[in-house]
Design brief:
Helix content is 48%, strand content 19%. The N and C termini lie far apart (66 Å). By secondary structure, the chain is of the alpha+beta class. The strands form nine sheets. Strands 1, 2, 28, 29, 30, 31, 32, 33 and 34 form a nine-stranded mixed β-sheet that branches. The N terminus and C terminus are likely disordered.
Length: 905
């Protein structure tokens, strides 16, 4: 009975479903209600307004005949009745409560069944029907709100005319699918030449004419047919979304029929196939990937998809001819349905749940023909149920279930954070001098130091961001993280003895002994900049995660973390940091194991589903055996291995936050144990988080309805914790994530203060008493914490798709060059101070060029910094050797003299 109760408690959240609703509301401004919008009209955002074409209006004589057809808006039906349709020259612009009309002919862009796509605030109109014929025209429309004028510019026409194309923009390139009217041709037009040096669109008539004369369309692989028996498919819609490995073009929707039966409406059927295309792949690999039939709840979709709209970082909304709203997850390739809700109707039916549920299933009002996103909302031209020959403007928005973190979880969160702060404040009265404040009196046990190194190097970045990265990709990064095992011996037998021998408080004291004070100050300043950025990323990542599952906003979370860190870190010193790190490590590892167990329990087939889904979708891929010349820009195996070694080498040799842990134990033997223990914790710990990432992928592929499409990818694991874990357990693990971020931030605060006092204040005797140094240490800790909090507020940016990727860039940009300095000093006897400065500048320059020009993957930045610093620093030292450099005493300061020194001692 007890066992059954425990299992029921763990499984309870998995039995619930958080239903996402689509809120529909008719745009009811008087002026908008007067719009006469015919079938085939398009809608598009354009600068400060919505651009709506007039479409085709049916005559009363044939409307009843047309309305009797099952699919009234298909291109096949329209082609049979063009003679009875009227095409007007009025284009509408809706801006707030105002509506403006502009006379615009079909030749200039007011075409029915054309594809309209937003480009830098303007609208590109592609193909469509003009004067009852298919058009090849491409027009750029720009609404100028100040002058109330709609400008039209002609761009290079399509190679072939098309009645019902679909178009998307990706990386300033226009992609157009023509449909079976023109053999499913797929074309691309590079629009980059229309942009100026600042990336802004130039609307100068001369520039556009020059572009039109000199730019050609590129022919790409045609879209394949879904069925060999129905080789006529039109109305296929395109959308751009990220599938975890980069933006892709998805094709879905439309209709199909046999070629020999074009005149028989009864043979028209919905096209439920979908495909994916990667325009950034190598030319030889640019083919349409068949994703198969669309299935929802294991049933084949029978609806026709009329329109698509990109949503969030990984979803596509699909609107069908039956008024249903579907959601496609581009990462898991899974579909679900969202119920539709009329805001006006629910306001009057809210007291009658039966009527409300009935209303949610009424979908005739919500049949969309054209959609666009504008200021975070979706606007749609829906069929008029009272007049099938016209369309009405509606607004759609997603209604998510209320955040139900609950008072129990919130209480656990608050109590846990208070306990962490009290633990940190416990050490306030143990700090009698700066040695206690910065090195804990060298009395920390090795196992606590190991936990602190682990929490310092990984912390909430691992707990939150790593599963998110794996969820959308695979296991390629695992080998790179395991390189910590390869670097650990170097840290134990080379780096740590260096720092213990010179009794360093700051890692950069070594640089002044090996080179000079200028090199030491430069390196210490670079470290300070790195850790301020690191604090910002850690706090922003955690805050974004918490905002998805708690009532706190991201900004609130950053401020709370910053203030709590300022309290206990400023007062408690390094001992407060290390013991809170130890607590977080224990809580997070236990929490991660619990989460993985619950994920597996939520899969229908348990562990077998986890393995089978991972294998079928290549989620366990660990090696990308690409050794081509351009593999340096990808996560190929050699990039992962070399990049992982560089990152870990930089951390173990040049990161004060890690080096400081070498000095908190009583002797080198204890320090060695802490480094080995950290490697032992980190390797299986990384594997656990990779399993969690793949588990999340499998879970949300089988339960797509449980995933909030509006969250950022970095929020997926905290969202799972808050919605799927038992009450109380979720609060504890979220609190652990919160406090782990705090421990990382407090580590950075203490480490920066250590370097500033040890490298910038004490060598110049700026303070005369030990108490003065203590006061300076606390004030600098406070100031650095405040700057880190400000950086956290800046990093809260939805455009940062993955903060883990941002972290790799930050660590590479700064720590790579610093690591190169230590390698240069330890491996060479001839390196001098001038060569060291040139080397670190060369390292930073190399990394900046790789970042800006994109010639190397971000995972390789740290290694590039080390190698560049070593090569340029050594060559410069050879060219600038002096007699003083040749006779410099290097005892204990290089790998060679260290061995001699140790042997003699």
């Amino acid at each position: 009975m007890f066992k059954f109760a425990i299992i029921s408690f763990l499984m309870m959240p998995l039995l619930t479903t958080a239903q996402t609703l689509i809120h529909w509301q008719e745009v009811s401004a008087t002026s908008v209600e007067q719009l006469q919008i015919g079938n085939g009209a398009f809608i598009s955002s354009n600068n400060d307004g919505l651009l709506i074409s007039s479409g085709l209006m049916r005559s009363e004589l044939v409307s009843s005949e047309i309305n009797s057809a099952n699919l009234t808006s298909t291109a096949a039906v329209i082609a049979q009745s063009l003679a009875n349709l009227n095409q007007f020259n009025t284009m509408f612009v809706v801006s707030g409560d105002n509506i403006f009309s502009s006379s615009l002919s079909a030749e200039l862009g007011n075409r029915a069944y054309a594809s309209a796509v937003n480009f830098n605030g303007t609208t590109l109109v592609v193909g469509g029907i003009s004067q009852q014929n298919a058009s090849a025209s491409v027009n750029l429309l720009s609404w100028q709100a100040s002058s109330k004028i709609l400008h039209s510019y002609s761009l290079p026409p399509l190679p072939q005319a098309t009645k019902s194309p679909s178009a998307v923009i990706l990386n300033n390139t226009l992609y157009v699918l023509t449909g079976s009217d023109e053999s499913n041709q797929f074309f691309a037009l590079d629009l980059s030449a229309l942009l100026n040096a600042d990336g802004l669109l130039s609307l100068n008539q001369t520039d556009i004419e020059r572009f039109t004369q000199n730019t050609l369309w590129q022919t790409l692989p045609a879209l394949p047919f879904a069925s060999g028996h129905k080789q006529y498919q039109n109305g296929v819609q395109l959308a751009v979304q990220d599938d975890g490995s980069g933006p892709k073009i998805f094709a879905m929707g439309g209709y199909q029929l046999p070629l020999q039966s074009l005149n028989f409406k009864a043979d028209i059927s919905a096209l439920t196939h979908h495909w994916k295309y990667d325009p950034l792949a190598k030319v030889a690999d640019q083919t349409w990937q068949d994703l198969g039939d669309i299935t929802i709840d294991k049933s084949l979709l029978n609806d026709r998809i009329n329109a698509l709209s990109t949503l969030g970082q990984s979803h596509i909304l699909a609107f069908t001819n039956q008024g249903r709203t579907l959601s496609f997850n581009a990462i898991t390739n899974s579909w679900t349905q969202y119920l539709a809700e009329n805001i006006d109707a629910t306001n009057t039916l809210a007291d009658d749940q039966t009527d409300l549920n009935h209303h949610l299933n009424q979908s005739a009002t919500f049949i969309s023909e054209s959609v666009t996103s504008y200021r975070g909302e979706i606007f749609s031209l829906n069929r008029n149920k009272d007049n099938q020959g016209s369309l009405i403007l509606w607004q759609a928005s997603l209604k998510q279930p209320a955040k139900n973190f609950g008072w129990v979880n919130m209480t656990v969160l608050v109590v846990y954070l208070v306990c962490v702060v009290l633990l940190g404040l416990f050490f306030v009265f143990k700090n009698n001098n700066t040695d206690d404040y910065f090195r804990g009196g060298q009395s920390i046990p090795w196992w606590a130091a190991a936990c602190s190194i682990y929490a310092t190097m990984l912390s909430s970045l691992t707990y939150v961001a790593l599963p998110a990265v794996v969820y959308q990709s695979n296991w390629l990064l695992l080998i790179g993280i395991w390189m910590i095992i390869a670097v650990a011996p170097l840290a134990i037998y080379v780096a740590m003895p260096f720092f213990r021998q010179i009794d360093a408080t700051s890692a950069y004291e070594y640089l002044s002994k090996r080179f000079n004070m200028g090199v030491r100050l430069f390196a210490s300043g670079l470290f300070t900049l790195f850790h301020i950025g690191r604090m910002g990323i850690v706090m922003a990542l955690t805050a974004l995660a918490l905002s998805a599952v708690t009532p706190l906003s991201a900004s609130d979370s950053v401020l709370i973390m910053g203030v709590l860190c300022l309290i206990y870190c400023t007062m408690g010193g390094i001992e407060a940091v290390i013991w809170t790190d130890t607590l977080q490590t224990i809580v997070l590892i236990i929490g991660a194991i619990t989460c993985f167990i619950i994920i597996i329990m939520g899969l229908e087939g348990g562990l077998s589903d986890f393995v089978s889904i991972g294998l079928n979708d290549n989620k366990f891929t660990m090696v990308n055996a690409d050794f081509s010349l351009d593999s340096i820009t990808s996560l190929s195996i050699w990039v992962i291995v070399i990049g992982g070694i560089g990152q870990n080498l930089s951390s173990y040799t040049a990161d004060q936050a890690v080096v400081q842990r070498y000095m908190v134990t009583k002797d080198p033997r204890e320090a060695s144990k802490s480094i080995w223990a950290n490697a032992v914790i980190a390797a299986p710990g990384a594997l656990l988080f990779f399993c969690i990432g793949t588990g999340l992928y499998a879970f949300y592929q089988l339960h797509p309805e449980k995933l909030d499409p509006t969250i950022q990818i970095d929020q997926i694991f905290p969202t799972f914790i808050a919605t799927e874990l038992p009450i109380g357990v979720a609060g504890l693990i979220v609190a652990g994530i919160f406090a782990a971020a705090q421990s990382t931030v407090s580590t950075s605060m203490n480490s920066i203060a250590t370097t500033l006092v040890t490298d910038f204040i004490r060598p110049f005797n700026l303070v005369k008493t030990e108490q003065g140094y203590m006061n300076a240490a606390r004030w600098l800790t406070f100031i650095m914490g405040a700057l880190g909090t400000l950086a956290g507020l800046i990093f809260i940016n939805p455009e940062i798709r993955s903060l883990m990727e941002a972290y790799f860039k930050v660590i590479g940009m700064f720590m790579g060059a610093l690591g190169g300095l230590f390698v240069l000093g330890a491996l060479t006897k001839k390196a001098n101070s001038f060569g060291a400065i040139i080397g670190i500048l060369a390292g930073v320059t190399t990394m900046i060029s790789a970042w800006q020009l994109g010639w190397a993957n971000g995972y390789l930045y740290a290694t590039l910094g080390i190698v560049s610093c070593l090569v340029f620093g050594y060559l410069t030292s050879l060219l600038t050797q002096t007699t003083k450099d040749r006779h410099r005493d290097l005892t204990g300061l290089t790998l060679y003299t260290m061995q001699t020194h140790v042997t003699k001692s």
